[in-house]
Amino acid sequence: MAYSFFFFKQKTAYEMLRSLVGSEMCIRDRPTQEQHGDDPDVATDTEPHVSSPWWRELIVPVYISSALIGFIKGVEVVCLPLILTRKLDASDAVAGAAIALDGVGAVSAGIPAGMLVAKVGARKTGMLALAVYTVATILCVIAPSLPLFTALRLITGSAFGTFSVVIPVVFAQTVPVNQRGRALSYLGGGNRAAMILGPMAGGLAAEYVSASAALLLVAMAAGIAGGCASTLRDDVGVASSTTSSGNIGSERTPLGILAVHWRFFLSTGVFCLVPRA
After folding, report:
1. pLDDT exceeds cutoff 80 at 213
2. How far apart, in Å, are the Cα atoms of 160 and each of 68, 102, 126, 132, 151?
3. H-run or E-run covering 202
4. Rounded to whole angstroms, how far apart are CA atoms 111 and 10?
Protein backbone atom coordinates (compact mmCIF):
# COMPACT_ATOMS: atom_id res chain seq x y z
CA MET A 1 0.00 0.00 0.00
CA ALA A 2 2.86 2.34 0.83
CA TYR A 3 4.42 1.52 -2.54
CA SER A 4 1.21 2.48 -4.32
CA PHE A 5 0.97 5.72 -2.38
CA PHE A 6 4.48 6.93 -3.17
CA PHE A 7 5.12 5.50 -6.64
CA PHE A 8 1.71 5.20 -8.30
CA LYS A 9 0.76 8.31 -10.24
CA GLN A 10 -2.13 9.87 -8.38
CA LYS A 11 -4.74 12.07 -10.01
CA THR A 12 -4.68 15.69 -8.97
CA ALA A 13 -7.65 17.55 -7.58
CA TYR A 14 -8.11 19.34 -10.87
CA GLU A 15 -8.54 15.99 -12.60
CA MET A 16 -11.26 14.95 -10.17
CA LEU A 17 -14.47 16.85 -10.81
CA ARG A 18 -15.77 16.38 -7.26
CA SER A 19 -12.52 17.43 -5.60
CA LEU A 20 -12.24 21.01 -6.80
CA VAL A 21 -11.98 22.69 -3.42
CA GLY A 22 -9.89 25.49 -1.97
CA SER A 23 -6.37 26.13 -3.13
CA GLU A 24 -6.23 22.69 -4.76
CA MET A 25 -8.01 24.24 -7.73
CA CYS A 26 -4.73 25.84 -8.84
CA ILE A 27 -2.69 22.61 -8.97
CA ARG A 28 -3.02 22.40 -12.73
CA ASP A 29 -5.34 23.20 -15.61
CA ARG A 30 -8.11 20.78 -16.34
CA PRO A 31 -6.98 17.96 -18.64
CA THR A 32 -8.13 17.69 -22.22
CA GLN A 33 -10.03 14.84 -23.80
CA GLU A 34 -6.97 13.91 -25.85
CA GLN A 35 -4.91 13.34 -22.70
CA HIS A 36 -7.28 11.04 -20.84
CA GLY A 37 -9.70 9.67 -23.41
CA ASP A 38 -13.03 8.55 -22.03
CA ASP A 39 -11.99 8.09 -18.41
CA PRO A 40 -15.21 8.85 -16.45
CA ASP A 41 -13.24 9.85 -13.35
CA VAL A 42 -11.47 12.65 -15.15
CA ALA A 43 -13.08 16.07 -15.60
CA THR A 44 -12.13 17.09 -19.11
CA ASP A 45 -12.27 20.59 -20.47
CA THR A 46 -14.99 21.11 -23.03
CA GLU A 47 -14.02 24.68 -23.83
CA PRO A 48 -11.28 25.63 -26.27
CA HIS A 49 -7.97 26.58 -24.67
CA VAL A 50 -7.55 30.32 -24.29
CA SER A 51 -3.92 31.36 -24.58
CA SER A 52 -4.46 35.09 -24.06
CA PRO A 53 -2.43 36.50 -21.15
CA TRP A 54 -5.43 37.35 -18.98
CA TRP A 55 -3.25 37.88 -15.92
CA ARG A 56 -1.47 40.82 -17.52
CA GLU A 57 -4.77 42.60 -17.94
CA LEU A 58 -5.70 42.01 -14.29
CA ILE A 59 -2.41 42.79 -12.52
CA VAL A 60 -3.10 46.48 -11.92
CA PRO A 61 -6.92 46.78 -11.75
CA VAL A 62 -7.55 43.58 -9.77
CA TYR A 63 -4.48 42.16 -8.04
CA ILE A 64 -2.79 45.40 -6.98
CA SER A 65 -6.04 47.11 -6.01
CA SER A 66 -7.18 44.05 -4.03
CA ALA A 67 -3.82 43.84 -2.29
CA LEU A 68 -4.19 47.49 -1.31
CA ILE A 69 -7.63 46.72 0.13
CA GLY A 70 -6.08 43.92 2.17
CA PHE A 71 -3.42 46.37 3.36
CA ILE A 72 -6.15 48.84 4.29
CA LYS A 73 -8.01 46.28 6.37
CA GLY A 74 -4.79 45.39 8.16
CA VAL A 75 -4.08 49.02 9.05
CA GLU A 76 -7.65 49.53 10.26
CA VAL A 77 -7.30 46.62 12.67
CA VAL A 78 -4.76 48.71 14.55
CA CYS A 79 -5.91 52.30 14.17
CA LEU A 80 -9.70 52.10 14.51
CA PRO A 81 -9.78 50.85 18.14
CA LEU A 82 -7.19 53.47 19.09
CA ILE A 83 -9.16 56.34 17.54
CA LEU A 84 -12.45 55.19 19.05
CA THR A 85 -11.17 54.65 22.58
CA ARG A 86 -8.57 57.42 22.85
CA LYS A 87 -9.75 60.23 20.60
CA LEU A 88 -13.53 59.76 20.82
CA ASP A 89 -13.60 58.33 24.37
CA ALA A 90 -15.75 55.36 23.39
CA SER A 91 -16.05 52.33 25.66
CA ASP A 92 -14.76 48.97 24.49
CA ALA A 93 -18.29 47.74 23.75
CA VAL A 94 -19.20 50.85 21.77
CA ALA A 95 -15.91 50.69 19.87
CA GLY A 96 -16.60 47.09 18.91
CA ALA A 97 -20.10 47.97 17.71
CA ALA A 98 -18.79 50.90 15.67
CA ILE A 99 -16.18 48.70 13.99
CA ALA A 100 -18.83 46.06 13.28
CA LEU A 101 -20.82 48.61 11.29
CA ASP A 102 -18.22 48.23 8.56
CA GLY A 103 -19.41 44.65 8.08
CA VAL A 104 -23.05 45.72 8.18
CA GLY A 105 -22.43 48.16 5.36
CA ALA A 106 -20.57 45.55 3.33
CA VAL A 107 -23.42 43.05 3.62
CA SER A 108 -26.13 45.58 2.80
CA ALA A 109 -24.31 46.79 -0.32
CA GLY A 110 -24.04 43.39 -2.01
CA ILE A 111 -27.23 43.28 -4.08
CA PRO A 112 -27.30 47.00 -5.01
CA ALA A 113 -23.63 46.72 -6.03
CA GLY A 114 -24.41 43.83 -8.36
CA MET A 115 -27.16 45.85 -10.01
CA LEU A 116 -24.82 48.84 -10.36
CA VAL A 117 -22.12 46.70 -11.98
CA ALA A 118 -24.63 45.36 -14.51
CA LYS A 119 -25.74 48.89 -15.35
CA VAL A 120 -22.49 50.91 -15.54
CA GLY A 121 -19.79 48.25 -15.61
CA ALA A 122 -17.12 46.98 -13.23
CA ARG A 123 -14.65 49.81 -13.91
CA LYS A 124 -16.95 52.69 -12.97
CA THR A 125 -18.39 50.79 -10.02
CA GLY A 126 -14.95 50.01 -8.61
CA MET A 127 -13.75 53.58 -9.08
CA LEU A 128 -16.89 54.97 -7.43
CA ALA A 129 -16.62 52.59 -4.48
CA LEU A 130 -12.96 53.40 -3.80
CA ALA A 131 -13.54 57.14 -4.24
CA VAL A 132 -16.30 56.99 -1.62
CA TYR A 133 -14.03 54.93 0.64
CA THR A 134 -11.25 57.52 0.33
CA VAL A 135 -13.46 60.52 1.06
CA ALA A 136 -15.27 58.84 3.95
CA THR A 137 -11.96 57.78 5.51
CA ILE A 138 -10.58 61.33 5.32
CA LEU A 139 -13.76 62.57 7.00
CA CYS A 140 -13.29 59.93 9.70
CA VAL A 141 -9.94 61.51 10.56
CA ILE A 142 -11.56 64.89 11.27
CA ALA A 143 -14.87 63.57 12.63
CA PRO A 144 -15.54 65.45 15.90
CA SER A 145 -18.10 63.05 17.37
CA LEU A 146 -18.71 59.35 17.77
CA PRO A 147 -22.08 59.25 15.90
CA LEU A 148 -20.55 60.91 12.84
CA PHE A 149 -17.58 58.55 12.93
CA THR A 150 -19.81 55.47 13.11
CA ALA A 151 -21.99 56.74 10.26
CA LEU A 152 -18.88 57.23 8.13
CA ARG A 153 -17.70 53.72 8.96
CA LEU A 154 -21.03 52.40 7.73
CA ILE A 155 -20.39 54.22 4.44
CA THR A 156 -16.87 52.82 4.12
CA GLY A 157 -18.27 49.35 4.73
CA SER A 158 -20.77 49.82 1.93
CA ALA A 159 -17.99 50.99 -0.38
CA PHE A 160 -15.90 47.96 0.53
CA GLY A 161 -18.83 45.63 -0.12
CA THR A 162 -19.41 47.26 -3.49
CA PHE A 163 -15.80 46.80 -4.56
CA SER A 164 -15.88 43.19 -3.36
CA VAL A 165 -18.65 42.48 -5.87
CA VAL A 166 -16.54 43.83 -8.74
CA ILE A 167 -13.76 41.24 -8.41
CA PRO A 168 -15.77 38.04 -9.13
CA VAL A 169 -17.53 39.79 -12.02
CA VAL A 170 -14.17 40.63 -13.59
CA PHE A 171 -12.93 37.07 -13.11
CA ALA A 172 -16.09 35.63 -14.64
CA GLN A 173 -15.72 37.69 -17.82
CA THR A 174 -11.95 37.76 -18.33
CA VAL A 175 -10.45 34.55 -16.92
CA PRO A 176 -10.91 31.22 -18.75
CA VAL A 177 -12.91 28.69 -16.77
CA ASN A 178 -10.03 26.22 -16.56
CA GLN A 179 -7.76 28.85 -14.99
CA ARG A 180 -10.04 30.53 -12.47
CA GLY A 181 -8.72 28.44 -9.60
CA ARG A 182 -5.24 29.70 -10.34
CA ALA A 183 -6.50 33.28 -10.65
CA LEU A 184 -8.23 33.06 -7.28
CA SER A 185 -5.13 31.60 -5.65
CA TYR A 186 -3.07 34.55 -6.86
CA LEU A 187 -5.67 36.91 -5.46
CA GLY A 188 -5.78 35.18 -2.08
CA GLY A 189 -2.01 35.06 -1.76
CA GLY A 190 -1.60 38.74 -2.51
CA ASN A 191 -4.36 39.72 -0.08
CA ARG A 192 -2.88 37.63 2.74
CA ALA A 193 0.55 39.13 2.25
CA ALA A 194 -0.91 42.64 2.29
CA MET A 195 -2.93 41.89 5.44
CA ILE A 196 0.33 40.93 7.15
CA LEU A 197 2.00 44.19 6.17
CA GLY A 198 -1.04 46.31 7.06
CA PRO A 199 -1.00 45.89 10.85
CA MET A 200 2.76 46.41 10.90
CA ALA A 201 2.49 49.68 8.97
CA GLY A 202 -0.50 50.80 11.02
CA GLY A 203 1.26 50.05 14.28
CA LEU A 204 4.37 51.97 13.25
CA ALA A 205 2.30 54.96 12.13
CA ALA A 206 0.29 54.96 15.35
CA GLU A 207 3.40 54.58 17.49
CA TYR A 208 5.59 57.24 15.94
CA VAL A 209 2.98 59.67 14.56
CA SER A 210 -0.65 59.07 15.59
CA ALA A 211 -3.62 56.80 14.99
CA SER A 212 -5.14 59.49 12.80
CA ALA A 213 -2.01 59.39 10.64
CA ALA A 214 -2.52 55.66 10.23
CA LEU A 215 -6.07 56.34 9.06
CA LEU A 216 -4.73 58.87 6.55
CA LEU A 217 -2.50 56.07 5.29
CA VAL A 218 -5.69 54.09 4.71
CA ALA A 219 -7.18 56.96 2.69
CA MET A 220 -4.03 57.23 0.58
CA ALA A 221 -4.03 53.49 -0.13
CA ALA A 222 -7.72 53.60 -1.08
CA GLY A 223 -7.05 56.45 -3.50
CA ILE A 224 -4.22 54.52 -5.14
CA ALA A 225 -6.45 51.45 -5.39
CA GLY A 226 -9.07 53.57 -7.14
CA GLY A 227 -6.48 54.70 -9.63
CA CYS A 228 -5.53 51.08 -10.26
CA ALA A 229 -9.19 50.13 -10.78
CA SER A 230 -9.51 52.85 -13.41
CA THR A 231 -7.26 50.84 -15.76
CA LEU A 232 -9.92 48.15 -16.21
CA ARG A 233 -11.74 47.90 -19.53
CA ASP A 234 -15.04 49.76 -19.77
CA ASP A 235 -16.99 46.81 -21.17
CA VAL A 236 -16.30 44.41 -18.27
CA GLY A 237 -19.37 43.70 -16.18
CA VAL A 238 -21.94 45.57 -18.27
CA ALA A 239 -25.04 43.45 -18.78
CA SER A 240 -26.00 42.63 -22.35
CA SER A 241 -29.13 44.27 -23.73
CA THR A 242 -30.40 40.90 -24.93
CA THR A 243 -30.66 37.88 -22.70
CA SER A 244 -32.29 34.51 -22.78
CA SER A 245 -33.21 34.49 -19.12
CA GLY A 246 -36.90 34.51 -18.39
CA ASN A 247 -36.39 36.01 -14.93
CA ILE A 248 -34.58 39.16 -16.01
CA GLY A 249 -37.60 41.34 -15.45
CA SER A 250 -38.09 40.15 -11.89
CA GLU A 251 -34.37 40.55 -11.05
CA ARG A 252 -34.27 44.31 -11.41
CA THR A 253 -34.91 44.91 -7.70
CA PRO A 254 -33.30 43.43 -4.57
CA LEU A 255 -36.57 41.76 -3.57
CA GLY A 256 -36.89 40.31 -7.06
CA ILE A 257 -33.41 38.81 -6.83
CA LEU A 258 -34.22 37.29 -3.44
CA ALA A 259 -37.49 35.88 -4.78
CA VAL A 260 -35.80 34.22 -7.75
CA HIS A 261 -32.66 32.95 -5.99
CA TRP A 262 -33.93 32.30 -2.47
CA ARG A 263 -32.73 28.68 -2.51
CA PHE A 264 -29.21 29.82 -3.32
CA PHE A 265 -29.19 32.37 -0.48
CA LEU A 266 -30.51 29.83 2.05
CA SER A 267 -27.89 27.22 1.08
CA THR A 268 -24.68 28.68 -0.31
CA GLY A 269 -25.31 32.13 1.12
CA VAL A 270 -25.65 30.87 4.68
CA PHE A 271 -22.62 28.62 4.20
CA CYS A 272 -20.54 31.66 3.19
CA LEU A 273 -21.73 33.70 6.18
CA VAL A 274 -20.92 31.08 8.86
CA PRO A 275 -17.10 31.33 8.58
CA ARG A 276 -17.35 35.13 8.67
CA ALA A 277 -19.26 34.96 11.92
Report:
1. yes
2. 12, 8, 9, 9, 14
3. helix 180-208
4. 42
CA–CA dist 219, 79 (Å, integer): 12
**Is this prediction's pTM over 0.70?**
yes
What gap in Å lies between CA 48 and CA 82, rounded to an integer?
53
Residues in Cβ contact with 255 at an 8 Å cutoff, skipping those fewer than 6 apart:
none
Query: Distance between CA atoms of 96 and 186, rounded to whole angstroms?
Result: 32
Report which of 124, 113, 116 is spatially closest to residue 159, judged by C-alpha positions: 113
Query: Looking at the chain, how many residues does it have?
Result: 277
Rounded (10°) angle between helices 146-174 and 180-208: 150
Query: 155 vs 178, which has greater pLDDT?
Result: 155
Q: Are 170 and 46 in contact (CB under 8 A)?
A: no
Spatial neighbors of 6 by CB under 8 A, at least 6 apart, are none
Query: Which residue intervals of 88-145 are DSSP H helices?
Result: 92-108, 110-120, 122-142
Region of 239 (left: φ > 0; alpha: ψ -120 to 50; beta: rest) is: beta
Mean pLDDT over residues 236-258, rounded? 57
Q: Report CA-CA distances (Å) from 13 to 24, 26, 28, 40.
A: 6, 9, 8, 15
What percent of the chain clears pLDDT 90, i.e. is strictly above it?
Answer: 44
Q: What pLDDT is recorded for position 157?
A: 93
Q: Report, as an integer, the average pLDDT of 20-27.
A: 45
Cα–Cα dist 215/70, whole Å:
14
User: How far apart, in whole angstroms, are the C-alpha atoms of residue 206 and residue 75?
Assistant: 10
d(CA 133, CA 100): 16
Count the Cβ atoms, other than its own, within 10 Å of residue 35: 12
Cα torsion 275, 218, 77, 144: sign: negative
Distances (CA, A) of 241 to 118, 182, 235, 238: 10, 31, 13, 9
